[in-house]
Amino acid sequence: ENAFRDVNIAFANELSLVADRLGVDVWEVIRLANRHPRVNILSPGPGVGGHCIAVDPWFLVAAAPEQTPLIRTAREVNDGKTDHVVAQAEALLGATGDAPVACLGLAFKANIDDFRESPALRVVQALADRHAGRIRVVEPYAPALPPALADTGALLVDIDTALETCPVLIVLVDHDLFRSIPLEERRTKRVLDTRGLWPDQPVAPA
User: Fold this and answer.
1) Which end of the chain has fewer CB atoms within 10 angstroms, the N or the C?
2) What b/e sequence results for 29-62 when a residue is b if at least 16 CB atoms lie within 10 Å of its CB, and e otherwise?
3) Which residues contact 35 (CB under 8 A, 6 or more apart)?
4) Residue 206 pLDDT exceeds 90
5) What is the tens place of the pLDDT at every residue in 153-164?
6) CB neighbours of residue 144 within 10 Å
7) Could you tell me the CATH number of the domain that includes residue 103?
8) In angstroms, how far is CA 82 from the centroid of its own chain?
9) Number of separate domains in the chain
10) 162 and 169 in contact (C-beta within 8 Å)?
11) 19-36 mean pLDDT
């Protein structure tokens, strides 16, 4: 079951890479494709986390490596999507001077406090390691930053503080709290939305 889901998520993530290359909106592509009654493309994201989907497929690969090229490739695609998001975020940070950046979410999926194998955490850690002092983290399900971020200079803030002080927002987890932020509070922000939470977000000038 987890390997099946990983393969399906990999298709969505690979489709998002194609969309980035061609300059089209992957969320609109998926919405249109899913109008077909027998099509249900999943939503892409910054990768795959958790103690099940990101781990279990490797047991099948290890048991029968010659027979599992698709499962192995799906794992590589999903892990590679995290690297792609880091590169996108680096480009955004490079274009915004020394402005503080709010990373929204650390958990591996919405509305939980579980950071195991979380691609969001890997993205934030990579950015915090390279941009000490600029990274703010909003994680409503954590009272403190996890140990992986302890010595990086990243700061845990609430969403109101992030919206007031950070002109750059990177959406990594689709927590309900983030989904509910009205356009008025983010209209002027530079945004990297890896979850498709805000289809109404204006495109920032280059």
Assistant:
1) C
2) bbeeeeeeeeeebeebbbbbbbebbbbbbeebbe
3) none
4) no
5) 999 999 999 999
6) 9
7) 3.40.50.720
8) 7
9) 2
10) yes
11) 97
In this predicted model, what pLDDT tens digit does every residue of 41-87 receive, in sequence order?
999 999 999 999 999 999 999 999 999 999 999 999 999 999 999 99
Containing domain of residue 151, as a range?
86-193
Question: Are both 105 and 63 inside the same structural domain?
Answer: no
Q: pLDDT at residue 131 above 60?
A: yes
How does pLDDT run across 80-112, given as a tens digit for each residue?
999 999 999 999 999 999 999 999 999 999 999
Tokens linked to 72 = 């192995």
Q: What is the CA radius of gyration of the chain?
A: 17
pLDDT of res. 163:
98
Q: End-to-end CA distance of the chain: give it in Å, rounded.
A: 42
Domain final position from 81, 113, 142: 81
Q: To the nearest whole number, what is the mean pLDDT of the chain? A: 96
To the nearest 10°, the Cα dihedral for 180, 28, 124, 202?
-60
8 A C-beta contact, residue 192 and residue 169: yes
**Has residue 201 been placed in a domain?**
no
Give 166-182 as a DSSP string. -SEEEE-S--HHHHT--
Together in a domain, 63 and 24 = yes
Count the Cβ atoms, other than its own, within 10 Å of residue 193. 18
